[in-house]
Amino acid sequence: MIYLHKYTKLFQKKVVIFDKLECQILIDYIVKPLNVEYAVVDIGDNKIKHPLLQKVVKFSFLVYVIFYLKFHRTHCVISFRDNGDIQRLSKILKSIEFYAIQNGNRTKRELISSYRYGANRKFNFTNYFSFGYYEKYLFEKYGHTIKKCIPVGSLRASVYKAEAEAEAGKDKSIIYDICFVSMWRCVSFDTKNKVLLYEAEQMKKVDNFLNRYIESSKKNICICMRASSENGETAEYRYYRDLFGSKVKIISRDNYSTYDAMNRSKLIISSHSTCTSESFGWGKKALYVDFSSENIFSYFDERVLLLKRPSYVEFENRVSSILNMNDQKYSMISSSYSNFIMKYDECIPTYVKIQNEIKRCLND
Fold it and tell me: Does residue 9 lie in a domain region?
């Protein structure tokens, strides 16, 4: 379905937000401050199961969007779903500036066809608000294209920082030694798909290593769930409860709950959550643990941000070493690479950088 924001006028739209993913953030932090006419256009969820009909419906919606953008004399289109159809539209409508905003790590599983459920699709961005310079290096290495790469950091994380700083009375003291960010997906544990089963196997290894570490170290640890459990126990909640028992604090996902937990933790660990990169950009101690062959899920520098070898002794030593390292030494080791991965700027938030670029585009 096509969704248009109720406060927009009928004709000229200076800016169109394509896809409803985090569209309220884009409205409040990007478009409204620019004081321009805008609309939100969303193709919606295509729940048709028949492959051919699914393609026909998707193609029809895209044709509609193309005519909508041309009819409303759109100047630029922004989307938070960088791995969606904004790339296809940018190839067709060359008179409109398209800006994709990175919403998550782009791993080998997405960049190399043999790891992507057999799909062979090249990323091709006109303008890309990336986390850092790392994406330009990675995309070019694996044959993808970014015409204009604009490293700005994480939009979500910058909005969290702005809202957290606005809450003057909010307690930001460190209470956890380790914040483990879940990448649990029900489909990974209940599927015949070999790629998803392999992902689940690697995550289980990391989970079990962490459980052993908790037993021996007695560290204070929280688990940030990938989904909310407000309406009762979920499969994800039961999985971590059964594995860790009362040894950890399990935190249900709610708005910025994961960012809050990371902000109040000494070390952030995950198998491949983007949150790990976001916290690393803040200057937090961070570690990806990816035991997959050739770093399918977390393709980072092993000397700084990644543990690859599936050895519990190495896991224990690496985690303890990072926790025991003083902040100044860790910063010396990691600051250059963290800026490469996630261009966080305390003085100029990500949403301001994006505003400035969109403003420049509208004034050209």
Answer: no
